[in-house]
Write a structure and sequence with these properties.
Layout lengths: L36 E3 L2 E3 L9 E5 L10 H7 L4 E6 L10 H13 L3 E6 L14 H10 L1 H4 L6 E4 L12 H15 L6 E4 L10 H12 L5 E7 L6 H14 L3 E6 L10 H11 L2 E4 L25 H8 L4 H4 L28 E2 L6 E11 L2 E10 L7 E6 L5 E6 L1 E6 L2 E6 L11 E9 L11 E4 L1
Parallel strand pairs: 3-4, 3-10, 4-5, 5-6, 6-7, 7-8, 8-9, 9-10
Antiparallel strand pairs: 1-2, 11-12, 12-13, 13-18, 14-17, 14-19, 15-18, 16-17
Helix pairs in contact: 3-5, 5-6, 7-8
Length: about 450
């Protein structure tokens, strides 16, 4: 197995944690409606609709045969994917044809595509790392694949472009890379990663964000912090995110995890605060991690039927992707109740089958998403006139459907018969209260809903 290069952050949080933030709001001129733009702390689509990233990172450059993962990432509700590319300085170069294919696959799966050059990771600490100037050279060299994609693509100039050695150098190098890309004719929204292996514990990005933003003649730069062990307390997370909010500058969490070799990030606070403030987030990473951080895989061996605990948390947990993601309007409208990737010109896939009461609860089954040979579904369990402590839902598949993945319930099957019991955390429902569990599945032919969906409770 290939190993995704990750790092150990050697520096601890130092007295810089108490440093002040240059909270200087920058005047932002009106933008032409060409792709993504910035308005204060918000990212806007070309039509002016606010867009909040809810997605994951995918290690394309090391696993080019796994581009089909984009469909699986979308099926679990993501609206954005951050794609790892190589400029050729450290790994095999992704040429213009490959990048064009990546963008086409993102668009086909109705995902906004954040493209990043990974070769810059840890510059100053990592001897093989490329400079931001070299990353800019790469973007210019593949500009033909990027022109006209401003509505679908955001350019993340370089991943974690400085380590802990001389992070102050990040400021000038980042400004120069931005102005170089603008001079070359790039109108895309630009994203810039923080130094300190992305975690900005020196607050170099935070305290210089206003001047970096002002250096972009298009005023269309977004800042990205990576949250691992440096962000292991709620106070550190909320303070950092709120400083950008106060400054009126756009920030996303370009990477984060539930654990790491440099400490234990507080993922619950990251997710909750990002949702509260409307900050985008992109978890690391879909699959293929190595080097001792395999626990950061969201699925095992790129198999969407094998969600890990981290994948379950990010996709299906509180403030996670399924609960908060909204598809970009450039791809058409979607129902507010579920992620969707069916073409807006098509009718939604087959619809609900609801049970009659059988005990003290009812269950409603519906298909929320569909693609050739597969689909995504959702079951709503509702308590009756009295509180319940546990529930069981059952049905018989009418069309040979089979699960590939389930979440928020313990599911067993016997032939065509399905039995789903509540998870430890969602069995207790007050009178009239509801909970949901979901699944993905395969189907051949008509995707007919079960005739009866039974629910029993205790």
């Amino acid at each position: 197995m290939k190993r995704i290069p990750r790092v150990t952050w050697w520096a601890s949080i130092v007295a810089a944690l108490c440093a002040g933030f240059a909270a200087v709001a920058v005047a932002q001129p009106a933008q032409a409606a060409t792709g993504f733009t910035v308005s204060g702390t918000q990212i806007l689509e070309g039509n002016g609709t606010p867009f909040v990233m809810r997605g994951v990172n995918h290690a394309h450059t090391w696993y080019t045969s796994q581009l089909g993962s984009l469909a699986n990432i979308k099926a679990l509700g993501a609206n954005t994917v951050r794609v790892v590319l190589s400029s050729g300085n450290r790994w095999t170069r992704n040429d213009a044809a490959d990048v064009a294919d990546v963008i086409a696959q993102c668009r086909a799966n109705r995902l906004i595509c954040v493209l990043e050059v990974h070769d810059t990771t840890g510059y100053g600490d990592e001897g093989a790392a490329a400079t931001l100037a070299q990353a800019a050279d790469y973007w210019v060299s593949i500009k033909s694949a990027l022109d006209g994609q401003e509505n679908y693509v955001i350019l993340n100039i370089g991943n974690e472009p400085y380590g802990n050695t001389n992070p102050a150098g990040w400021v000038a190098d980042t400004k120069n890379a931005i102005t170089r890309l603008r001079a070359a004719g790039f109108a895309h929204q630009i994203m810039v990663d923080a130094p300190n292996w992305g975690q900005d514990w020196s607050f170099t990005m935070r305290d210089n964000a206003a001047s970096v933003f002002a250096a972009d003649p298009n005023r269309n730069t977004v800042f990205s912090v990576h949250m691992y062990g440096v962000f292991d307390t709620a106070a550190e997370i909320t303070d950092y995110l709120n400083r950008f909010r106060t400054a009126g500058l756009p920030l996303v969490i370009g990477e984060f995890g539930h654990n790491h070799s440099d400490g234990d990030p507080d993922e619950d606070t990251i997710l909750a605060t990002a949702q509260q403030l409307g900050v985008g987030y992109l978890g690391w990473s879909w699959s293929g991690n190595g080097g001792g951080v395999e626990y950061l895989d969201m699925v095992t061996n790129f198999d969407p039927a094998q969600l890990t605990s981290w994948g379950q948390r990010l996709f299906n947990g509180a403030n996670g992707i399924k609960a908060t993601s909204k598809q970009a309007t450039i791809f058409g409208a979607q129902p507010s109740t579920s992620p969707s990737n069916w073409p807006p010109s098509d009718p939604p896939p087959s619809s609900p089958s609801s049970s009659a009461p059988a005990g003290a609860c009812t269950a409603t089954y519906r298909v929320t998403n569909s693609w050739p040979g597969g689909f995504q579904g959702d079951v709503t369990v509702k308590a009756g006139n009295a509180a319940i402590t546990a529930w069981t839902v059952s049905w018989t598949w009418p069309s040979g459907q089979r699960f590939t993945n389930t979440w928020s319930a313990t599911v067993t099957t016997s032939g065509e018969t399905v039995t789903a019991k509540n998870a430890a955390w969602n069995g207790r429902l007050a009178a009239g209260a509801t909970t949901n569990w979901g699944f993905t599945g395969t189907v051949t032919g008509a995707n007919t809903a079960p005739a009866t969906v039974a629910c029993t409770a205790s």
